[in-house]
Amino acid sequence: MTRKVLTTAFAVTAACLVFSGLAFAKAREIQLAYPAKLANGPEIQPGSYKVDVLNNQPTPEVVFYRGKEVVARTPAKLVELPRKSDQTQIHSKMEGDSRLITEIRLEGWKEKLLFDEPTQTDQSGR
Fold this sequence. Notes:
Elements: H1 2-24, E1 27-32, E2 36-38, E3 43-44, E4 47-54, E5 61-66, E6 69-75, E7 77-80, E8 89-95, E9 98-105, E10 111-114
Parallel strand pairs: 2-9
Antiparallel strand pairs: 1-4, 2-3, 4-5, 5-6, 7-10, 8-9, 9-10
């Protein structure tokens, strides 16, 4: 009986460690050199941020933390890459006077984060 309890306890502990490791694996540190805007989100100032992907919902969300404070939260699309990224890359484009983050590839990930274009207001009056 004791052996069965110990085996069960070990299995539960191992499963908890595996699943907590998987959840933690989706967080990485990034450095922004310039102020940048997220699609349909706020502008993020230069500095160091922890990026966490919440992939347990219909539309994955990316949360940007500075310390323990949530600075930004925005939906993203996860796109499979042929191989793991060997370095962190932040892709952006200029839109007017603002830099818009379009994609983030995180070192060691086999997925890239794509951010939608900001929604445009229909100027035609329809």
